[in-house]
Amino acid sequence: MINREGASWQLNAAGVVGGGTMGVGIAYVLAAAGAQITVVEPDPDRRKAVSRSISDRVRKLENENRLETGLGQKINESISTVSNVFELDTCLDVIIEAVPENLDLKVAVLTQAQQRAPHLLGTNTSSISITRLGETLGNADKLVGLHFFNPVWSMPLLEIIFGDKTSTDSMRAAVALGARIGKDVIQVRDIPGFATSRLGVAIGLEAIRMLEDGVASATDIDQAMVLGYRHPMGPLRLTDLVGLDVRLGIAERLTADLGPRFTPPDLLRQMVAEGRLGQKAGAGFFEWDQP
Ligand SMILES: NC(=O)c1ccc[n+]([C@@H]2O[C@H](COP(=O)([O-])OP(=O)(O)OC[C@H]3O[C@@H](n4cnc5c(N)ncnc54)[C@H](O)[C@@H]3O)[C@@H](O)[C@H]2O)c1
Hints:
Blueprint: E1 13-17, H1 21-32, E2 36-40, H2 44-63, H3 71-77, E3 79-82, E4 94-97, H4 103-114, E5 121-123, H5 130-135, E6 143-147, E7 157-162, H6 168-180, E8 184-188, H7 196-212, H8 218-229, H9 235-242, H10 244-258, H11 266-273
Parallel strand pairs: 1-2, 1-4, 2-3, 4-5, 5-6, 7-8
Antiparallel strand pairs: 6-7
Helix pairs in contact: 2-3, 7-9, 7-10
Bound molecules: nicotinamide-adenine-dinucleotide.
């Protein structure tokens, strides 16, 4: 276990690769901690959406008097976007990738990010072994798993995972980063799916199978966990928030690594093929007014 003591690390400037659901949230919390952030997002529409989402969040908190004076403007001004990893400054304090859950894509992006020589290189993978990702990088001493949760600005947890080659300095830096951005940190062994995805996906997949089997309606399956087990939301609604495509990607990864108990149900595959990806698409297991 690495504790915060002795962690000498600063957070002045950072890069976030991928400006989707998670990348935007990660950029926000890093900026709120005072860092200058550059988000890499190749899709021009999503690039525009990054600043829009950040300023919407700032406006909401300001309207609720939950941001100290001047911080909102500072956050808005400290986040910029580029279209390519090679546009990131060299020697940033940290670069964190948050591109889709695809091994080849993550390897490609981390390889490029490593060439920018950041002091710490983080991956927000939900399921891929950090050691496995590190094996492709040549020198993986800076690579750590920094697993954030959605929505990043309100979820308190940061799950940290170290690979076989992660250096002690990088471990300390990762824990210091968590403290700096005000997250509660857990350190988890480098087993695919870590602690959170493995448990969360297991419950989510079983809920989908129960819907397939006609055990109950989506609403009632969710209520079983909300009212019966005091979960803050049901597993199907949570799958809608995470994104059905994201959950499918994780389930496929865990099936490959941990075995058939994580085999994605046909219903999940079918809904992803139909574009019913959850909240971001306006429809999933439930209808969503606001994508
Ligand atoms: N959605 C969640 O609830 C959640 C929670 C924890 C972890 N994660 C993990 O976070 C990662 C991202 O998930 P997400 O939900 O934000 O996905 P997303 O699809 O919302 O966003 C991914 C973004 O990456 C961009 N991208 C694709 N290729 C790129 C490249 N080469 N360079 C830069 N950007 C590129 C896409 O255009 C997209 O905007 C995944 O590994 C996922 O498993 C997701």
